[in-house]
Write a structure and sequence with these properties.
It is a single chain. This protein has 245 residues and is of the alpha+beta class. Among the domains are: 74 residues, Glutaredoxin (3-Layer(aba) Sandwich), CATH 3.40.30.10; 73 residues, Ubiquitin-like (UB roll). The strands form 2 sheets. Strands 4-3-7-5-6 form a 5-stranded mixed β-sheet, with helices on one face. Strands 1-2 form a two-stranded antiparallel ribbon. Helix 4 packs across helix 5. It is rod-shaped. The two termini are 105 Å apart.
């Protein structure tokens, strides 16, 4: 009977089928609720109010495919409004479940996005704080360097001997600065080359640097020689060039 093509077509299009053996608890409980007299028993049920099953029709004992089809068609005709309401209720329930699932998914996605934005904001703040700390450290180091250079300049200026007047035994030197401009001063010819370096530093030239004569190219170092011993007696023009620290 259940293999009849007409029965199968109707069931597949309209009915959710379930079969049970009364030797098992679920089928036994349903059999007791339906209170039928013999087996096999076929019941047509739908979900009524409160999601409870409502009996629409039944067949007991051996029946033909035609009898089953007659029951199915008659039930569909007699309870069409009820079945339509049940389908509508089921559809609404499924729509509500689907909508709630969608809203839950969107809410979860929003939470994930909020957490990501919060994490990105924290990371940006940390990066800004690190950059600010690094900049502050650079500024502090630069301030310390400038302060140390100024202290050194003042110390060099205070230690310089007085500039001698023009006369015998006096060397006139002109120092061309790296950034342009020049410095000029007289020194005693027996003064050490070191004193010219001290004068340059006292005038604001930051070490490391060397004193160089262009032609012939000669580098004058802080080697303890006097100006006369270095061949600078009388006067000369020297270049101030950067030196490796």
């Amino acid at each position: 009977m259940l293999c009849s093509p007409a029965v199968v077509a109707f069931l597949n299009a309209n009915v959710l089928c379930w079969g049970g053996d009364v030797r098992h608890s679920e089928a036994y409980q349903l059999s007791g609720a339906l209170q039928h007299a013999t087996f096999p028993h076929l019941a047509l049920l739908t979900l009524g109010e409160g999601n409870r099953p409502t009996l629409l029709g039944s067949l007991e004992g051996d029946v033909t495919a035609e009898q089953l089809l007659q029951l199915l068609f008659t039930t569909a005709e007699n309870h069409g409004a009820l079945l339509a309401a049940a389908r509508a209720t089921a559809a609404e329930r499924e729509y509500t479940r689907s909508l709630r699932a969608q809203q839950d998914a969107e809410y979860e996605a929003s939470l994930v996005a909020d957490r990501a934005r919060t994490a990105e904001g924290i990371a940006r703040e940390q990066q800004r704080a690190a950059a600010a700390a690094e900049e502050a450290a650079r500024e502090a180091a630069e301030a310390m360097r400038v302060a140390a250079a100024e202290e050194r300049r003042l110390r060099k200026a205070a230690a310089l001997a007085a500039e001698p007047p023009v006369g015998p035994g006096v060397t006139q030197l002109v120092l061309r600065l790296r950034e342009g401009g020049r410095l000029q001063r007289r020194f005693a010819s027996d003064s050490p080359v070191e004193e010219v370096y001290d004068f340059a530093e006292a005038s604001g030239v930051l070490p490391p640097f060397v004193l160089v004569m262009a032609l012939p190219r000669t580098v004058f170092l802080r080697d303890g020689r006097t100006l006369a011993e270095a061949g600078l007696a009388g006067g000369a023009m020297l270049l101030i060039e950067a030196a490796e620290s």
